[in-house]
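Entry 12.
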Amino acid sequence: MKRRGVIRTGLFAIFLGSGLSPAAALTDSETVEAGRLLAVLHDSGRVTVGANQKLINDPDKGDKGFTPQAFEKQVTEKFKERTKVNLADLKNERVSETAKKLLPQLLDVMKQTVADYQPVINRQGVGFKGFIPATFGTQAAAKFRAKTGVYLKQTQNPPRNPKNMPDDFEMKVLARFADPTYPRQGEKIISETVDGGKAVRVMLPLFMLKGCLPCHGEPKGEKDISGYLREGAKEGDLAGAISVKVPLK
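Predicted 3D structure (tokens):
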């Protein structure tokens, strides 16, 4: 299981320096915040799947009770813990209209991903099911992009899954995240206005936790439970990032 990390890079000053009006700067900062919330929600889904791995992989149990509804309850609690935003009462939260529109759609596709895997999750007599945070994250992100047209991806350099290969922007930001001086606490994002001011890119770093190491730690080169080769990672090493690109109005 991998987790998070982001620095809101002086947006107001940057926008003023580029000649944008305060109103435009506010719009951009709201879009950055929407991107940040999407990234945190996506990672909260991954964390929730990771927290239920022992249950999911229990070969003695049939119906695990890890339904889309159970997932929703857990991920909503995790998201609120991390952002102070209550998805269950989003209309009354002080977030942008962009966030209010996109967050429920991301939650819906995450629940759909859990629903799709119910036959696998509830298969008795089988241990490792292959439904891990990375698999969940890749599929939920693809569903979200197809539904909304908003770019969302988990990425790493190099990735285990070629679908998560970083583009040039992501490569540069991942290099910054990998610097040992980059904050490992506080979910510090990096954001940038791109496409001639038409969109905002936001990246949320993921850092290795103890729970990640059985698959990603030592001994390097040996196969983990999923059949991939362990990377020899240590706690606190960069585990990748959640990458979001949100169009500006």
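Annotation: Confidence is low (pLDDT under 50) at residues 1-26. The longest strand covers residues 199-208.
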